[in-house]
Amino acid sequence: MAKNTLSTARRGRRHPLATIALIVIGLVSTGGAYALFSSTASANTPASTTTATVDQGKKLFAANCATCHGVNAGGVAGVGPSLYGVGAASVDFQVSTGRMPLANQGVQAEQKPAQFTKDQISALATYVASLSPGPGIPDAKYLKGNGNLANGAELFRINCAMCHNVAGAGGALTQGKFAPTLSGVLPVHVYEAMVSGPQNMPVFNDKNLTPAQKADVITYLKYLDQNPSPGGIDLGNLGPVSEGLFIWIFGLGAIVGVTIWIAAKAN
Prior knowledge:
mainly alpha; iron; two-stranded antiparallel sheet; Cytochrome bc1 complex cytochrome c subunit; Cytochrome Bc1 Complex, Chain D, domain 2; 1% strand; heme
């Protein structure tokens, strides 16, 4: 009986190499799964996010941006902010619209012709995006201008009109700053501005305005571009100030002119 029990115990005892074998099998399985996943991800990764693109962007950054933003994009006190967390959207907006690199230090970066090609801008955006997470380039489906026009108009009046004017004509702000006109602005730049908050503009993340709502705002702006003022001359779409000034100068001027003409005829 004792022999049978001992024999059974020996048969149930794990071999000393069994644990090592299990670890090896686990590592091989995990490594194989990871390799499969990595190869699939790499196959689906666009060329713009390759290491070569990041390296190109890093070189462009060092030559053109590091003076203000620091060699590692951490910012330079009193000169340029850190770019960690701004994402590709901010870089694409600022560089594509020519606001960056700055021509000179001032109260606000003004739009000018872009200083880089599309590929170079993409490389810069990819490099900055690789430093830390941030808003990315918007999906093309939100830029078609086929959203809800009425909802976009309402959202624009609530969130944007106080600075950009209800017709997107722009307006003056404090200390020499201004909200630029939105007429003719590319949809991608409108979306990027909403998610990055350039200059004095607040950031409208996806909790403030969902991507679909941003698409509605773009739809409204595209509608304004495609439909001229139904009332005739829009006078810059600046509202009652420009309209009142027009009446004051030309209306009263005409009255004074007619009065002088009548007086001259009477004599």
